[in-house]
């Protein structure tokens, strides 16, 4: 975990290292060839899906829905309680979202609980183009469908990069040294910045750690990117096998504030009313440590990257 002063210093480092455009050729056009075996080998945990009562929404979901020009009253909010954690995750889904809540709960649950614990909210909304992003440990999915496990691992990789290891990995000299030993990057998206390289390498590291035969079973030229994904694989193992299924949650992020969907009271049957159901309790239960949040919303990579987190937004080929 990082204190506020450490976070500020880390974001400054990102500007000089994590956001640098890379100069190595891509090994493949994308990582879609990993999707099927990822899905087959990451089990879906037991889960319960419970919809919130009318009138309430997490502040994060409300803000992002409005930023995207959508109506907050078209959002349904859910508590997703998995068998591997005593605290539910709060997910928000637009009524026109491409993915239904049951499937979203399944693929989010396939992410091992150690890594999943570094995510606060997931919001799924419609859009003209498919992409995703992670801002402040919150994931926004736009037009991501039922095969989105690889996308979720990538986005969670940004949170692990930022504060699951001993230092922000993509801003470290250690990452640059490992990168320098390889001849390629995983794909063109990984070549955009060190931050994206770490996130794509996280997908490969998860595959290598869990799928029988590892990355080499599907990639004959694995040596060309080995130092990158092996570094992530080693660090996640030292942090508690964050990318490997099993175990239970030990720490979580606090949820954003629960707020009323309507910005002002409305007239209903002649009476002014606001939110009408009981406010959901989303506090962190006893026995679970609180992860210090990181605020990436201001961005640090300039115009070529939308922001340090939302600029991690990536097109998704279906």
Biggest β-sheet strands, sense, barrel:
7 strands, mixed
Q: What is the first-to-last residue Cα distance?
A: 36 Å
Overall pLDDT confidence = 86
Helix-strand category:
alpha/beta
Note the beta-strand portion: 15-25%
Given the C-alpha coordinates, what overall shape results?
Answer: globular
Radius of gyration from the CA trace?
19 Å
Low-confidence stretches: 1-14, 297-318
Task: Give the fraction of residues assigned to helices.
Answer: 25-40%
Total count of strands: 13
**Number of distinct helices:** 9
Order of helices and strands: HHEEHEEHHEEEHHHHEEEEEE
Q: Strand order within the widest sheet?
A: 1-3-4-5-7-6-13
What do you see in this structure?
The chain is an alpha/beta fold and 318 residues long. The chain is 31% helix and 16% strand.
């Amino acid at each position: 975990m990082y204190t506020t002063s450490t976070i500020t210093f880390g974001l400054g480092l990102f500007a000089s290292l994590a956001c640098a455009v890379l100069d190595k050729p891509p090994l493949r056009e994308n990582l879609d060839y990993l999707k099927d075996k990822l899905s087959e080998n990451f089990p879906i945990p037991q889960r319960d899906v419970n919809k919130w009562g009318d009138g309430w929404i997490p502040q994060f979901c409300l803000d992002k829905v409005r930023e995207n020009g959508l109506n907050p009253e078209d959002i349904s909010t859910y508590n997703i309680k998995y068998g591997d954690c005593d605290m539910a995750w709060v997910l928000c889904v637009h009524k026109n979202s491409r993915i239904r809540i049951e499937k979203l709960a399944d693929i989010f649950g396939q992410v091992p609980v150690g890594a999943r614990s570094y995510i606060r909210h997931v919001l799924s909304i419609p859009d003209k183009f498919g992409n995703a992003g992670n801002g402040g440990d919150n994931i926004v999915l736009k037009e991501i469908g039922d095969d989105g496990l690889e996308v979720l691992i990538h986005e969670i990789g940004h949170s692990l990069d930022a504060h699951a290891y001993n230092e922000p990995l993509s801003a470290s000299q250690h990452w640059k040294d490992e990168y320098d030993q390889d001849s390629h990057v995983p794909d063109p998206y990984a070549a955009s910045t060190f931050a994206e390289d770490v996130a794509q390498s996280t997908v490969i590291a998860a595959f290598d750690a869990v799928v029988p035969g590892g990355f080499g079973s599907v990639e004959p030229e694995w040596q060309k990117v080995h130092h990158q994904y092996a570094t992530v694989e080693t660090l996640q193992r030292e942090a508690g096998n964050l990318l490997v299924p099993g175990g239970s949650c030990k720490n979580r992020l606090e949820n954003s504030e629960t707020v009323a969907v309507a910005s002002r009271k409305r007239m209903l049957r002649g009476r002014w009313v606001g939110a009408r159901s009981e406010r959901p309790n989303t506090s962190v239960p006893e026995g679970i440590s609180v992860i210090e949040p990181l605020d990436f919303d201001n961005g640090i990579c300039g115009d070529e990257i939308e922001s340090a987190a939302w600029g991690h937004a990536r097109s998704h080929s279906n």
